[in-house]
Amino acid sequence: LAKLDGYLSNFDRMEKLPEIPAQSPVERKARFLYESASTDRKSAAVEAWCAADYTDVKARYTQEIIGKYLCGTNESPLAAALVNRGLCENVSCGGGNFMYIPFVISCENTSDEDAEECFRIIHEELEKIVSEGFDRARLAALINDNEFKEREHNRPLPRGIFNLLTVQNQWL
Q1: How far apart are CA 93 and CA 97, in angstroms?
Q2: Distance CA 102, CA 28 (A)
Q3: Which range, 2-6, 74-78, 95-99, 165-169, is most confident?
Q4: Distance between CA atoms of 71 and 33, rounded to whole angstroms?
Q5: Helix%, strand%, coil% for the chain, nearest 5
Q6: Sign of CA dihedral 109, 130, 94, 47
Q7: Is the pTM of this model over 0.70?
Q8: C-alpha–C-alpha distance, residues 40 and 47, integer Å
Q9: CB 106 within 8 A of CB 92
Q10: Distance CA 152, CA 134 (A)
């Protein structure tokens, strides 16, 4: 504590912290193809969209459920459409802990030549789901699974550390 006091005693206490305004998201269209040293289907085709503000808890959980719906297993609609065509070996959906949470779809272990086809299939499958709707039984199962995991805290981290990592996103 003495060491901290030696540093902090040089500053006056602020009753109200200055407000730092959030930067508005920038609309930008970009696609990235990550290449590896090996040329044998070791690239990743990645597409992402700004999905939610970090304060929108409902949107964050919705994004998590939709990611599992699309890519949770190899039988999931988007993963099956890409893997069964032999365009890539794995498809993952995710986000991140940022001010504006991205929704990222990654086609892993693909070739440079198949990347554009991966992007086309991604959009085709998303448009199909939008027009036909979600499989309600599958969606209900994913929501129930997510709720069970939240209640049971079935994670490799101790609950306190997990809770710290969860709330830190709103503090930063």
Answers
A1: 14
A2: 13
A3: 74-78
A4: 19
A5: 45, 15, 40
A6: positive
A7: yes
A8: 21
A9: yes
A10: 27
